[in-house]
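for the record, two folds in this file. i put them one after another cuz i was lazy. first one right below, seq on top, structure tokens after. the second one comes after a little note so u can tell where it starts
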Amino acid sequence: MLRGLLHPGLMVRRGLKIGDLDPRDDPRYCTLVSDKSLAVGGGVLEAIFSHAKLRLHLWE
């Protein structure tokens, strides 16, 4: 299964990684968020919440 998140018409440069191959042969995984994506998202949230100036603007 090929995983990626690109929309039609997006310009990319040669050599840019645009997806991952998922070796699991189970179509149910097509509707789930990957472990890697969850880890990246968690890291972004942690960075935002640890930055005092950004925290002030979250609930404006």
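(here's the note) second protein begins now
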Amino acid sequence: MSIETSKTFKILSSVIALILLASMFHWRASQNYKNADYYNSNFFVFWLSGKLMLDGESPYNPEDWSNGHEKYGTITPKEPTFLYPLPLVLFLTPLGFLSLGQAYYVWQIISQVIIGFVVYSLLSRWKSSAHSRLLIPIVVFLLYFGPIYLTLQIGSIGAISLLFLFGGLNFLDRKNLFIAGLLLSFTMLKPSQGVMILFLLGTFFLLTKQWKFIYGMIVGGILLLILGIALNPNWVSIFINSSQAAFDRRLGVQSNVWSFSYLACNGNSTCYSILGASGMLILLVATIYYLWRNHSKISNWEMLNLIIPISFVATLYLWAYDQILYILPIVWIIGTFVEKSRSYIFPIIFLVILDLYSLFALLQQATTSHDLWSLGTTILVLLFCFIAYKMKQKPAIDKLASSA
């Protein structure tokens, strides 16, 4: 094949891939738009928070929050105020320019584009045609991966954290630790995802004396604090109080160490506090120790592959849709399987198992209102990370021939 023909083929393949992705994204967004009750979804509160800001009102004001629910959709708020950090509202304000239905559709498209972009960029790290062919299949499987399926349906904002996490990884690899720390600090816009991730990363970089990363985290945290204070000087105390109340109401129904401790102790506060704190500390200390001992042997991507799942088990508050960040270890597992086995068999087996189990866990959550089964998704991701890491590299065909 000539160079000119090869270039034409690559361009044509890229155009076809973009058309297929755009069609899939539109179809999924349209189906959810037609069938989902987005007036009673997570997305409604995100849209409403932006709408209230445009109207000169505050999502942290109980009266404005209640009136906004009555005016724009649902009558009774599920929470007394907006349950997320106030600086997040600045990212959500543009949604308020659209009607709820329009914003819901647009946000689904944006979320899927972010997912597709991250998958494409991660696969591009291998610089291999065998990996580039995986883009469409991986995206298709991910759209039916339980946490992402739920994320799109309810209009969750996990794609924002995914983008910051991916950006942080890229700057870590470029040795620009300050920008990496700055970007990763913005995962705190969704604390259920960001708190433990930043704790593990921050502790690791403290132990390895990578001060620029710590400075970036601090600057990012200060920026978020100032942005929130500019909107409401008391936002931190309001957020902490509402978060504590939400945590108390959801004990025993989520897939983290605190909920399982609550169930094991039959709701005894002293027992589950000790057991939960002990379990959390064991997970965090063991992870930090492993990273500290092995940091010269593993890449930044591999480090995040461990930190993300462990963070979600150790965190105080978690739902299945927060596991959208598992995209990073999932793509690494698939790419490593292809690289080492020189076959697509292992990636297909992994994706089928992961999708089937995560959808089963999602069904259990829908029927019981308990998200305990999502722990299995975390275990599967960690297990396959270990298998891919330990897998032996299969020799190339030409090497086998020469040795014979």
